[in-house]
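Protein modeling request. Please complete all fields; requests missing the sequence field cannot be processed.
Requester role: graduate student
Desired output: 3D structure, token encoding
Chains: 1
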Amino acid sequence: MLPYLFISLLVIGQPQSAERQLLYAEDLFDQQAYPSAILEYKRFLFYHPGADLDDFVRYRLAQSYYYQDDRALARQMFREFTEIYPDSLLYRQAQLMLGKTYFDAEEYSTARSIFFQVINTAGDEWVTAQTQYLRSWCYLHGRDWLRAISEFRKVEQFQPDSPLSPISTQLANTTLANTPLPLKSPKQAQWMSTFLPGAGQIYAGKVRNGLISTAINAAFFYLLVDSIREERYVDAVGLYLVGARFYWGNRSNAKKWAIEHNRRLEADLIRQLKQQAENVEQMPSLPK
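Delivered output (288 residues):
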């Protein structure tokens, strides 16, 4: 990448024909030399203001920032593009890329709204299929499994012959086969451990943790009753204060383990779906 940047710096200030300069910038872009491509696209805009390809160059410039992981600037430029060039043939692609900046940042609600606008605007079916596919993933990450299944099945309507169609059907089927997930109720876990310490942890899948909690709380309860029976009230107060911490901690842990159990199941399903998607070439990039 450094040689490309060095060559670009050498020719700065030396205007070239619009076609030649754009071809050079495109060559840098194709070779993923994005810093150098950015310089060349900026030079094109400076030396050839108002050119017929102005919208294309600005779109490529925003893409270059996106692919070199400057997502904040890329988002700003894609948003400006949609405001400046509402009639451009690249308008829907710019909207799609704008949505992807939110998608990558895990702001799925905003991304989903932008994707909805793209889908409901007439245009290239491949862009629509990509957008529909990513919109489906927004619902997956929002744990709205049924809506995700429905959205995945719509991909085939837009481009049935693309790689997106079979993988979307596969993802829909996998999601359907694995949902609803066997989730645990955090509130139920908490109340179970209220009446029988450790029961909520066992319910949440933490059997060892639950048995230890049961044993500790049972020991404190036995010692407390024994000290009261023998009229050792000072000991009883001390045991109550210490034992109460274990008891209330036992309730909190039961709720925490149930929540973690649910999150793990959801994360495992999404990880499984990502692995399926990554086995197919030319898929839109997924978030980390």
